[in-house]
Amino acid sequence: MTSQRLADYIPTPPGVTLEEGPDEHLILSMGPHHPSTHGVLRLLLELDGETVVNATPDIGYLHTGIEKTAESLQYQQALVVTDRMDYLAPLSNNLGYTLAVEKLLDVEVPPRAACLRVLLTELTRINSHLVWIGTQGMDLGAISTFLYALREREKLLDIFELVSGARMMGSYFWIGGLVRDVPPAFENEVQKIIDAFPARFDEYERLLTKNPIFLERTRGIGVLTPEEAIALGTNGPIARGSGVDWDLRRDMPYGTYDQYHFDVPLGTHGDVYDRYLVRVRELRQSLSIVKQALNRLPEGPIKVADRKIVPPPREELATSMEALIHHFKFFTEGIKVPAGEVYQAIESPKGEYGVYIVSDGTARPVRCHFRGPSFVNLQALAKMVQGRYVADVISCIASIDIVLGEVDR
Amino acid sequence: MDNATVVEALKSKFGNVIWNVVEFRKQAFVWIEPSRIVEVCQFLRDEPTLRYNFLSDVSCVDRLGMQVEGIASGQDPEKRHDDLRFVVNYQLLSMPNKHRVWLKVGLPADEPHVASVTPLWPSADFLEREVYDLMGINFDGHPDLRRILMPEDWKGHPLRKDYPLGFEEVQFTHNFERVQRKKKFARS
Q: Which of A70, A272, B45, B149 would disulfide-bridge A78, Cβ 3.0–4.6 Å?
């Protein structure tokens, strides 16, 4: 393809010319169907030989207009589309959205629901990190890690299926509590996971942590200093890998996270290897939170009592006229939310997941904005790969842990 | 750190630049003069007692057809700025003080533009491009203001309220008014 025709197809970043200059930089289009881009990310790599001069992400291939869709849905309906953003951590998305709407409504969920929410979001974090540990290993050639990690993930998906009926897009958290109570087998199943997983985590560490090839491909690569990490807006495990001591669960607690004890693991060098270590330690911390939540799981209702916010139980409909009216009103007119605007941030597996909702007092949001951590974290990629080899780009993309569903929304 | 401290600091430093302060559910929304956004952000970032070092979000609201007096729990935030159709929100986070503050600038319907905060936070790059792409706000001084989510050759800005949805909703008594208001924008 001549550069003339190439220019028709590729939007060139500023400062880049497709003409052959004296320095003869090559523009290489990586993706959108490259296996290591974890979806449909396209990178415009500017190369000098094998050295990356600059990398410009080209995103939007998965843009589905979730923010626009939410504007024409009622609050309880818009909850369902939030699962589709970060599809590796659907319950984290649910949590951010439901907390935001509950902040607008000014309600608090009952203790049992709050405890189950913590338990399930931490299982979701393990789920997301397991997929990450697998793909990071696979991108660098350690395919066996991927197979082991997905084996464990199946166990977690079984739990999500047990509680919500769906393996991934459960929409299990509802405004004002949970959709339904967990089945009797739940506690036993979670206990099995708590017993089995520490040994499995050791197994991954045996495969990767001291693996010389893995060390060679990750240590000293994609370095971000703490100042750069903050300036570039990175958050979550990436910033913590650089030594930024910040975790929303501990520093600005939401839900009932202030009642749980956990450490926030930090890295020192800010390279890919430190991000790996941070996530592996987070796996163990999350499991410890799951354990604490299971031990203190209180009895009681799982929804608030306000019939304007949650529909009445199905069995009441046959006997109570009031319940029938509330049921009908809830599913036709929706929840009347007070006018105002709120921003609710939670620590999703990837970083700060924020939900900004503007309400005008009707049953549909005027504006519903999602701050996806992957979207903001992706900006750090150019900084990580500048001056490195093309092979390191793979390692860096994997270490950001992007989910393109959330980047493009 | 609480809302009163930062509001007091902003008022004593900038005076009339601060148009209004709305507090809702313990969040402080500070309306400021659009032309001074970079100055205010720089003050909040560099002042040693405040240190809002992290720009966590930039978003925008299109207030076309919105019942303005309904905003912020019945208070009228900006009687004198009702004609300002777009509101750009900057959400600043102070990691040392564990506190958030929201800056709001109102922009007119015609050629809305505001200075970019990319010189202060490189993280504003994608966030402002997203607002430009979906809402059509121009950020002066942004190094690379191109569409980010929509295709390069897309026409219009989809998150604006007058962007055609391509369908019409069925009117019932309970939503008659709302659907009526949107009717002229329903089809392209």
A: A70
Which amino acid is located at A192 in the chain? K
- pTM over 0.95, yes/no: no
Q: Counting one residue from A and one from B, how many pairs have CB atoms under 8 Å apart?
A: 118
The 8-class DSSP code of residue A407 comes to H
Encoded tokens for A104: 């607008």
Task: State which residue of chain B sits closest to A246, comparing Cα positions.
Answer: B95
The answer, yes or no, to whether residue A47 has pLDDT greater than 90, is no
Straight-line distance from the first to the last Cα atom of chain A, in angstroms, rounded to the nearest whole number = 33
pLDDT tens readout for residues A55-94: 888 888 888 889 888 888 889 888 899 888 888 888 999 9
DSSP states along A199-256: HHHHHHHHHHTT-HHHHHHHTT-S---HHHHHHTT--THHHHHTT----HHHHS--TT
Chain A interface disruption, residue of B130, B152, B162, most A CBs within 10 A:
B130
Beta bridge partners of A342: A357
**Other beta carbons within 10 Å of B66:** 18
Residues sharing a CB contact under 8 Å with residue B21, sequence separation 6 or more, in sequence order:
B7, B28, B29, B30, B31
Q: Which residue has 């942590």 as its token pair?
A: A209
Distance CA A15, CA A382 (A): 15
Residues A234 and B95: beta-carbon distance below 8 Å = no
The SS3 assignment for A181 reads coil
Structure tokens at A400: 């950001």
d(CA A351, CA B102): 20
Q: Which residue has the higher pLDDT, B64 or B53?
A: B53
Reported as a single tens digit per residue, the pLDDT across A256-265 is 888 888 888 9
- Strand residues in B76-145 grouped as ranges (E): 86-94, 99-107, 113-115, 138-140
3-state secondary structure A98-132: HHHHHHHHCCCCCHHHHHHHHHHHHHHHHHHHHHH
Chain A CB contacts of B70 below 8 Å: 339, 360-361
Please give the Cα distance from A344 to A106 (Å, whole number). 13
Contacts (Cβ under 8 Å, ≥6 apart) of B153: none
- Distance CA(B62)–CA(B77), nearest Å, equals 16
pLDDT tens digits for range B114-132: 999 998 888 888 999 999 9
Q: Which pLDDT value is given to residue A99?
A: 92
Strands ordered across the beta sheet of B27-32: B18-24, B27-32, B99-107, B86-94, B54-62
Q: How far A373 CA sits from the closest chain B CA (Å)?
A: 10
Mutate to test the interface with B, among A235, A346, A360, A406 (most CBs of B within 10 A): A360
